[in-house]
Request: fold
Amino acid sequence: MKYFAQHKRFVRGAVAWGVIFCCVTLCLPGASAQEGDIEYTLDAASNAIPLPEIFKPSMDLSGRGFHSDPTRPQALADQHARDTWQKDIGLRSVFRLQYNLWEISEVAGNRALQSKLLANYEDTIKKVSDSGGIVIMNIFSTPQGQGKVLDKKSSPVDLKAFKAVVKDFIRYYSCDKHYTVWYEVWTAPDLDDFFLGRQLEYLNLYRAIAEAVKELEGEFKITIPVGGPSSSWWFRSVDGNTNVTPERSLVYELIKFCYHYKLPLDFISWHAYSTDPKTEKEMTSYNKSSVALMRDWLSYFNMERVLLVVDEWNYDNGVNLSAERRDRVFVSASYIPARLKNMYEAGIDQQVFFSLEDFQYNKEGIERNVGVFWFTPDPVAYNGGAKSTYNVFKELSLLGDSMFVHAPKLADEFVGVIPTKAQDRIALLIYNYIDPDIFRNYLSRNIALLNEGERRALLAIIKSDKLDKILRRQLDAATLSVSNRTKAMLKKAQELNDSAARFSAAGRNFKVVLKNLKDDYIAERYTVDSACNSNCDLIAEALEQNVSAGITSINLVLNPYSVNLIVLTKKAKEEVSRPQEIEKALEEAAKQKEAPPAQEAVKPSEIENQEIPKPESQKTKVPQPEAAKYDKADQEKVVPPATEIGADAAAETTATK
Reply:
């Protein structure tokens, strides 16, 4: 697939040349300004790159976990939610689909029912592929009768039979239908709730599917992307593991396994649920970030072109039914662009938000309000709607097709900007997200930098009541019997927590300074904040400030936990106006007409001999700068074929990852 290879080359090039996020100078004003005020200067004439894929609205299409209609994939969100997304946002990015082999095999005795079930799977795949999007098909569960312990979460007892089943539907979707599909092998195989087997059994399962892909690629001369392991965290293994020993992770073992057996591996995927927007910047004991370490592994095994994909993520404070995802949903809404910005800066290639619809009232008893759509079961009609998180994805869809890039001078801990442009407009997505658990998240993100003794000492503090006392400034970290490095880490976490408490209580003054504008613009503002939680209209509000050619500024107040999209649209060119000389001449003529008659009349012959200057037209059109365009190569769409196997609707999302 040309697009797949081309996209990887682009991302690698961007990282290699140090393309750092933010095409602006972000700086705090001098002492005369109010504390927390921010001035953001954007040079409209500065360089831009094609908008990175990671900023495009991508979604896992899961939801509910149960449908009364057995022909509907049980883990697929309701049709109303999917249709609304397609109409408002479109399907041109990445969409993940849980393909449950147990579910499809369960109705094998009823060929008509199974055909309808497979048709419903294919309908979703076709819509995404025809729209220019990508389907990440998550191959999950074992067909009935093929599991070692007669369970859909079990590893297959006969890998050859399992391979044949999978190969059939890959042939159908990718080789026969040419849909654009990436195949992801299993989900959360490191958790017993999703996979019953040892680490080697997962690796052999991956090998069976990867070999099927390799054989089909050779037969049909096309590229069929395949990857995994979709673990619950990047550092997890089937035996557990922590980020202190990442070399024991399933990710590392899969990379090494594919190298040894010469298996295709096009992307590495994992889940990452957190309230920390800087999750992907987590440091390791190798004194580098988790993403940088994985890049090193891939480079060592000559797999530099493998993509890194966070295939499930959301705001998660460890509670299945979180208030920040319902009654206070503006908190998780503001988290979305903050997390995306940090993903981009860390070097992640693709991401998929989880999920389109909430999970509840299903056979597994899983209730999680992770969706951008809520619902209440109703046997008669659809009863649900969009949360304000949905409007953030609508704002992302309104970004320009190019992004300004420039190294920032000073970054703010909570406020950030995604600056983009298109041919006739500039779009700035501005967020103000304050991590409610920044104290613990900072320690968690950096604990691997400590040595073993320091880590033990810090963990002892965390398990005791001392951590909360430090958090509330009832205990001075300097008095603890720990290393200076540990004290410094605790002090930094304490300072961040103080800042979070201060800025979560009041808005921030934010000034946008725009330089080198070539035209006049109309300015509009779209806002997502605490004013509305669900079924909110995303309405443009006209800004009063004039945005004129040259240099101009826009003053805003950013509420805590808010997302603001500022859209500047070029004013339409008016008809060429009369030259100033003609206007003056007409004014003079009008004055003479109103004035009393002169005492000495001018002779007509003198008027005829006068020469009236013909002024030249002043107005000329300024050439319009063209926005950078990213011409995608024609994609060879690779998607699997459908057979008698199918995917189970009860895609057990991520129970308590």
The first strand starts at residue 24 and ends at 27. The radius of gyration is 30 Å. Residues 199-220 form the longest helix (22 residues).
